[in-house]
Structures are given as C-alpha cells and as structure tokens.
Amino acid sequence: MIPEIGYFSLVLAMGLSLLLCIFPLWGAYTGNLRLMRTAPSLAVGQCLLVLFSFGVLIYITLTDDFTVAYVAHHSSSTLPWYYKVTSTWGGHEGAILLWLVMQASWTALVAMMSKSLPWVLRARVLGVLGFLGVGFMLYTLWMSSPFERLLPYYPVEGRDLNPLLQDPGMIIHPPLLYMGYVGLSVSFSFAIAALLTGKLDNTWAKWSRPWTMAAWGFLTLGITIGSWWAYAELGWGGWWFWDPVENASLMPWLVATALLHSLAITEKRGLFKSWTVLLAIAAFSLCLLGTFIVRSGIIVSVHAFATDPDRGLFILSFLALVVGGSLALYGLRVSQVYSEGRYKLVSREVGLWVNNIFLVVATLIVLLGTLLPMIHKELGLGSISIGVPFFNQMFAILIVPFAILMGMAPMLRWKQNKLPPLAKKWVGILVATIVITSAWLFSSFDEISTLTYLATALAVWICIATVVDLVEKVSVHPSTAQGLKRLGMSYWAMVLGHVGIAFVIASVTLTSAYSVERSVVMKKGEIATLNDYEYRFEGVNEIRGPNYGGHAGEVTVFKDGEYVTLLHAEKRLYDVGMQFMTEAAIDDGFFRDLYLALGESMGNGAWSLRIYHKPYVRWMWLGGILISLAGFIVLADKRYRRRKQTSVEHA
Amino acid sequence: MNKKFLGLVPLLIFVLLCVFLYQGLFGNPRELQTGRLGQTMPAFELPDLMDEQKRWTDQDLLGEVYLLNVWGTWCPTCIAELGYLTELREQGVRIIGLYYEQAYDPDFGDQFDINYLRTDVQQMLARAGDPYQFNILDLERTLALDLGVSGAPETFLVDKNGKIILHHTGDINPRVWRSKFAPAIQELQP
C-alpha cells in the first residue's frame, strides 16, 4: 500500500505541475492577475508532494520492501542504513525521482524568492518551470517509476547496491550534479520568460545571475566530487577519462561558465543580450542532451546506466519539444533585440566576448568528440573512435590562449582602455611568472619538459595577474580595509574562480608529468622504494564489513628513515553480488598523494601491490572547491540581499 | 531579413542533430560497429596467453563455429559475463578468448609483467568460471585493431569457414543469446 501512496502522490504532483504550466502562462498571456497569482502556491504544493513521494521511497528502502522492484534491484537488507538511503538514487528510476525532487525544490524556491519580480515575468518563469516538471513527471510515471511492484513473486533478498557506489563520494555526487543541472533549468526559464515577454532588457540578466551562479556552483562541486570519487574508488589513480557520461556533465558546465560571463556584460552594459539568452537555452539543453546520452544507450559508455530505446525516445521527444520550441521562439524574437552601447577593441567587453568564444569552442569540441563517432556511423562512413588523445590535445591547445586571457581580462575596464600602461603591467607579470615558475619547478623536479613548463607558467600567470589586480583595486582606496570592503562579492567570486582554475591547470600538468607508479610483489617485511619513499609491507589481514569480506594490506611508509604513515588498502568481496572492489589507501598531502592498491595473493604469503606517487593531484579538487565557492559567495552579494529588502516593501 | 535568418540558425542545427540522434536510437549502434561483418577472420599469428611457446593462427580456428570473446580482468562487465559464458561452454559452445590487456599500451612503452597477468587471469577464471577453450594474447592489439574492437567485452560469432557472422558489443546474457546468437547459429547448421 505504501509504495502506491508514493506513486499516487507523484500523480497529484504532476496534476499540480500541469496546472502550474497552464494557469500562469495563460494568465500572463491574457493579463489575468488572478491566474498568475496561482503560480507560487502550485509550485510549493507540487514540491511538497514530490518530497513526500521521495520520502516514501526512502522509507520502503529502509524497511527492505523487496516487493518493490527498485528496492529489490538496488538495495539489500545487509546494506548499512546510509547506503540504503543512497541506493534510492543509485539506480535509474530513483535517480530520476531525485531529479524531480531537485526540480520541484528549485521551482518552489524560485516561487518564494521572486516576490519582487513583476507578476507577468514571475508567472512565466514559474510556468516554464512547471512545463519542465510535467515532462519529467510524465517520464517518471509512465516509464520509469521506482514504485513498480514485483508481485506475486518477489525475492526475499535484494541484489544490493553496486559496490562502486558504496562510497561517501557517491552519496553526495549525484545530488550535487542534479542540483546543478536542474538549477540551470531556472536560468533557462528566465530566458524563455524574457523571450515570451519580449523585454530583453538587463533586468532579466540581473534576476537570472544569482540563480545561474548557484546552479553553476553546484555543478562544479558535483563534477569535482565525481572526479575525486573516481580517483579514490576505482583503484587505478585516474581522475578524468573523457567518457561520454563525464562529457555530458562537462558540456553544460562549459556553457554555463560562458553564460556567467555573458550575463555580467548583459547586466552591466546591456550588450550581447541575444547571445546571453542563447547561452541560457544552450546550457540547459545540454543538460537534457546529457540525460539523453546517458539514459538512451545511444553511445557506448563505461558507465552502466539503465539504457532502453523507449526511454531514449521519450527523452528525445521531450528534448526536441523543449529545445526546438525555445530555439524557434528565440529565432522569432531575436531579430527585435537591439543592443546599445559602444566599446573599443581593448575593453572588458571584448575580453569577455573572447572568453565566450573559447568556452563555446571547447563545448563544441566535447560535443563533436562525443557524438561524432555516432554521426559518422549513421552517415555510413564506418566506425571511428575518438579517444582521450583527441580531447587532451584539443584542450591543451585551447587552454593556452584562454589562460593568458584569464590573467589579462580582469584588468580591462568597460568600454575602452589605453594599451601602453596595460602592456607595461603585463610584461611585469610575465617576468614574475617566469621567475616564480622557474624557481618552483627547478627546485622540485629534476627533468622539466617545455610543455610542462609552459602549462605550469600559465597557472602561475593567472595567479600573479589576479593578485596584482586585487592589490591595485584595493590600493586606490585610502585604507586597505576600506578597499577590501568595496570590492564586492562578484569580484571575489572572480578571484576565487580564476585562482581555482589555476590550481586545476597546475595539478593536471604536474600530476600528469610527474606521477610514477610501481607494481611490486612483496612478502611480509620486504621494502619497496619509490620517489624517496620506502614502503614496508606488514602483511595482510582478513577483514569483515557489514556486507563484504576481504583482505586488507598494511604498508608502513618511511621517508629518510622517518615514519610517514601507515597505509591500509583493502580488497573487498561483496556478499550479495560477489563483486570485487579495490579500496585504495591514500595518504593525501598538499604536495603529493601516496596511493596504494592491493592486488592479488601470489602464494607463499606474497602479495602484489601497486604503488603510486602523485604530486599535486589534490590541487585539482582544491581548485574545484575554490571554483564552486565562487558560485556560492555571489549569493551573499549585497546587491542581491538589498533586492530582497526592497521586495518586502513592495509586498 | 538577414538577422531573422541568423536567429533561426541554432534551430536548424538542432533539428539536424535530432535527426541523427533519432537514427542513432534505432540504428543499432552496437552491431554496425565493425566493417568486418561478412568477411573472413584477418590472418594472424599470436601466442597463447598461458604458454608463449604455443602460437595460434587463423588457420587453427577453422572447421568449427566458435565465439571469439574479447575480454580482460580489468573489465567488470567481462567478469560479469564469465558465468553465463561458462554455462554456454557446458552446453557445447566453443568459446575462444582474445585477451585485451589494458594496462599495457604499446605506443607508450609501458612495462608489462606476463607472469603477473597469468596469475591474475587464472585466479579470475577459477573464481568466476572459465568458458574458454584457450586464450589468445594480443599484446600489440593488431588482431583487435583488424577486427575493429573498440573495447571489452565484445564478441564475434565466426562460422567454420572463418567468416564473421556477428559482432556484439557489450555483455552476453540470456536475452542477447536468445535474440541474437541462437538464431544466427541455427542458420549456420546445415
């Protein structure tokens, strides 16, 4: 009975989103304020029903109700309770329900926080969000319900959660990623509402910006955690594989990054309006496209998600309707949009414009690399495979001008600049970059390739340029404290975002160039050496977890005879699925990670082990966290808070 | 006029993309992937995984219908299908393994330890089931490239004259077997 209540609650929620889609949009079209006013309560009601439905799924998972197919396939009674909760989004149906939860929550948040918007715009934004809600709910109810029963024959035990997903990283990774994806639907709705209203002034950019920043922050954090999870859990020390599923999350991120910068121009200068709208549509469209790629089985990926052509067809139809509809609307309206305002070649406008070009080109590269093998085949040209080298090479080429620009652009002012003083500054920064990069690399490593040097220099360049700009902007004020206070959250966000990118560039470069690994077979007491570290094998113990057994290898690490750490690497065999999992032991450090994976028993008490030394690898996730912070601190910007106060006065 | 047309460009591109996505959804991507369908097995001479003295050539495989299963111990889906493949072997299906070593990439001059690999394979097969008559080791990936292998697991159905009848990407499970392999094998029976 309880699962049916969950299902029924979703049906009701879909009814409300259908109304949310119709009433406000119709009201906005006819100018009927009473219809428009229904939007917020419908949005909140829908959200409560979806949350209730999700609560039901968690409840039936916690109570091991294996009559429900989803629970039987993705959970088991021996699973610890927190992983039972995780299992509610460990499979396809539950993941889509989680998506709905996010969608409904964002919609309700928009409804509650948009009190100061004109009713026509507010109704349209919520109406569009309601339309998206209808699509996803229809999909869930029709072909992907997590409440389907396995009656009358049901298993007494579940199939357990995929051990790969039994990891803290996996608890938070999907929700964060979905927060990002769905958050971009808010930017999308603002763009569509603005197009419908026909008023593409900078107000909508101002409204859309904090929502976009927040969504982008979540997306960044989601991708970062996903990468960290792959590194910690897959046991072979990698962090990014250019898999179609990973690309599906990178594309919206790249476009959303372009969107943020473009929104800044539109808000501040009223320029690039139609371009910004297009980016907002594109960012969310790529989220939908990603969902299609992941869920349809159209592209072969190492990630084993539920794939099914029927589901694919539904998502494709929805994609065609949403994206096709908005691009048609865009095509009809964009010719009426005029941007006013002049600027010269050396100006912040041009800097941001070039930034947008780079990000869009990068997106197209990922899109082509992901879809080209399929298109190629459909054209009858035979199979091609586009792999990691293609992406690596293209991104290596793109990142050079992009990073140089990232250092220079923040110093540009709106409208125009005189070049000579800027050029002088840049030469100074270049000299500092060369000095610092040389000092850093030559003191840390024996051999340095030109490419490694260049790429590291890019990271250093961004950091120095950012700091120089910061110092200059502060020093024009009489006191440092006053100067710091004046900078504003958007500026701090930029500083964090750019420095974060610098960390990522440095990390990718250095860890790719200087990571070393060694496969060894050791008996108790034997010592292996790798990069000044000595690894003494202390033997293997049997381990027993709640739903797995296995072995744990202990290795003591010394450097120059001094004790560094004790590594504990596990090899687990999960009871239900009889799957093997490697739990790598990682001693993380600011400058290097020591990474150890336990292999097989080779007989006579000897074990195979794989030791990795990974310099600067942690900077990657540190960078990712800094970048996502950039997305979140903008929410604390005074401008947005002040808006809330005025909104109270209006009401 | 000009600007109006420009505004519709994104829509046109998107419509074109949708056409491909739609085709991709129904044109079974997993089957068309090889250009080798209907052709004979490429000529090769490669060592046995367990015994490097023993070498296999395309001629050794003629005379009987067999499955060539591309797999590796690093590949979870391959391990997952070992059990079902073993059942198939017990039913009399001849299965030959083409071992695909991922850790070793000839283009990067990686280090490679054959003894480690053998132990790894033996332990895996002892644990998950051993469907293979024997395993061919294609370290330089020449045969895999000739066959158009893009990953693992992939399975080829080859007739007794060495003609490639089917190329399947992904795991073999009872459903795939019933819908794809069994009918194809039936057709091969005289």
Automatic annotation (TrEMBL), chain A:
Primary localization: membrane
GO biological process, one term: cytochrome complex assembly
Coiled coil feature spans: none
UniProt-recorded Gene Ontology molecular function terms: heme binding; heme transmembrane transporter activity
Any one Gene Ontology cellular component term annotated for this protein: plasma membrane
Domain Cytochrome c assembly protein: 89-296
Stored Pfam families: CcmF_C, Cytochrom_C_asm
Transmembrane region(s): 6-29, 41-62, 96-113, 125-142, 178-198, 210-230, 250-266, 278-306, 312-332, 353-375, 395-414, 426-445, 451-471, 491-514, 616-636
Keywords tagged on the record: Cell inner membrane, Cell membrane, Cytochrome c-type biogenesis, Membrane, Transmembrane, Transmembrane helix
Topology within the bilayer: Multi-pass membrane protein
Localization terms from the record: Cell inner membrane
Cross-referenced InterPro entries: CcmF_C (IPR032523), Cyt_c_assembly (IPR002541), Cyt_c_biogenesis (IPR003567), Cyt_c_biogenesis_CcmF (IPR003568)
Every Cytochrome c-type biogenesis protein CcmF C-terminal domain range: 316-638
Function as written in the Swiss-Prot or TrEMBL entry: Required for the biogenesis of c-type cytochromes. Possible subunit of a heme lyase.
Stated family: Belongs to the CcmF/CycK/Ccl1/NrfE/CcsA family.
This protein's name: Cytochrome c-type biogenesis protein CcmF
Upper taxonomic lineage: Bacteria, Pseudomonadati, Pseudomonadota, Gammaproteobacteria, Alteromonadales
UniProtKB/TrEMBL annotation, chain B:
Keywords: Cytochrome c-type biogenesis, Disulfide bond, Redox-active center
Top-level taxonomic group: Bacteria
GO cellular component: cell envelope
Protein location: Cell envelope
Biological process (GO), any one: cytochrome complex assembly
Residue span, Thioredoxin domain: 35-190
Keyword Translocase tagged: no
UniProt-recorded name of the protein: Disulfide bond formation protein DsbE
UniProt lineage: Bacteria, Pseudomonadati, Pseudomonadota, Gammaproteobacteria, Alteromonadales
